[in-house]
Write a structure and sequence with these properties.
Layout: H1 3-13, E1 16-17, E2 20-21, E3 28-31, E4 35-39, E5 43-48, E6 52-53, E7 56-57, H2 61-75, E8 83-92, E9 95-98, E10 104-113, H3 121-126, H4 132-148, H5 158-165, H6 172-179, H7 181-210, E11 214-216, E12 226-227, E13 233-234, H8 242-245, E14 246-248, H9 249-262, H10 266-280, H11 291-315, H12 320-341
Antiparallel strand pairs: 1-2, 3-4, 4-5, 5-10, 6-7, 8-9, 8-10, 11-14, 12-13
Helix pairs in contact: 4-10, 5-7, 6-7, 7-11, 7-12, 9-10, 9-11, 11-12
Length: 342
């Protein structure tokens, strides 16, 4: 058991924030792939797991501290009222406390303001109650953020972009066995289409960096990371891998548009593009649009979601059928974009 895991288990048994003991009935403890979450009525505390994975290394205390500080700094760009502080987690004579000055530092926690979960955008999309007005507000927030984000100079190699997409092809046999040959064919066809598209557009893709369209953005822009408050709050950007965050504007909004279309919210998707373009048209980013590239990035984002969910389905016991149904829906989107791209 790593240091964070030991601290988290101690906090689950006896949660203390500063010198205050929190009754267990007032707390919810959650776990993600790389984090632990402690939810109180008005606050959330997030600890990084002691993990070393291909895409992230939180194996020592200093790396977890740095990751917490990066998460605070980067997310304050879009959610300054939500991301509040980085606090030490200390052990004092066998008692673990968050945000105290006494004891040995064993970990760090990001302190956040808690927002009503009923305002999570994915929940509202599921209920089909997201309005065009809310989309307009969101387009304004995101376009302003993109306009002010730092520019990044990048050159991509075609082979690297191809291999990134073609990781989906590794799941051909799994899709065939679990979903049928038609879905395995979608995977194969989309990988071939991706290769052709990149060969034909690699110069355009790289020229966009020189034109200022590649910036330090959010990297994980989808409805589960948005609260439709007023104004809307976008949270949980990718802090652990700048390559996933420093991307083309079209790659960023493609994830969000694909997500809307996953929920069959096509009118909201088209309205977002219209509003987003409107806010940027008189700026240096006014010529950012490239419709084929946007469509390609939507296909890529749907492919990534399908791949991630196949990984989950492969490892699942109880929820395998749920994951497979979601995989089917994302591959259906891949197929739709594939036909439009042809």
């Amino acid at each position: 058991m790593g240091m964070t895991e030991t601290a988290f288990e101690s906090l689950k048994k006896d949660l203390r924030i500063g010198e205050k003991k929190i009754p267990s009935r007032q707390v919810t403890f959650l776990e993600t792939h790389i984090s632990y979450l402690i939810l109180l009525k008005q606050e959330v505390y997030k600890l990084k797991k002691t993990v070393k994975l291909p895409f992230v290394d939180f194996s020592d205390l200093s790396s977890r501290k740095k990751a917490c500080e990066e998460e605070l700094k980067l997310n304050r760009r879009l959610a300054p009222t939500v991301y509040l502080d980085v606090l030490p987690v200390k052990d004092h004579h066998g008692t673990t406390r968050i945000g105290t000055s006494v004891g040995k530092t064993v970990d760090y926690a990001v302190k956040m303001k808690r927002i009503n979960n009923e305002l999570e955008m994915d929940r509202l999309l599921d209920r089909k109650i997201v309005t065009h007005s809310q989309i307009e507000n969101l387009a304004k927030v995101i376009s302003d953020f993109h306009l002010n984000a730092a520019t990044v100079q990048k050159i991509w190699k075609a082979d690297h972009l191809k291999s990134t997409y073609n990781q989906l092809g590794d799941w051909h046999a799994f899709a065939r066995d679990e979903l049928g040959q038609a879905y395995a064919d979608i995977i194969d066809q989309s990988c071939r289409s991706s290769d052709r598209f990149i060969d034909q557009h690699i110069e355009i893709i790289n020229s966009r960096s020189q034109r200022g369209y590649v910036r330090d953005l959010h990297g994980d822009l989808h409805s589960h990371n948005i609260f439709l408050t007023h104004p809307p709050v976008v949270f949980d950007c990718i802090e652990f891998d700048e390559d996933l965050r420093q991307i083309d504007l079209l790659n960023e909004i493609a994830f969000f548009l694909m997500d809307l279309e996953y929920y069959q919210a096509y009118s909201l998707s088209s309205h977002f593009v219209k509003c987003y373009q409107h806010h940027l048209q008189s700026t240096d980013l006014g010529q950012f649009m490239h419709k084929d590239l946007l469509l390609y990035f939507k296909m890529y984002r749907a492919a990534v979601r399908a791949k991630v969910l196949m990984i989950s389905a492969k490892d699942a016991t109880q929820e395998k059928s749920k994951y497979l149904e979601e995989v089917r829906q994302y591959l259906d989107l891949v197929s739709k974009y594939l036909k439009e791209l042809a």
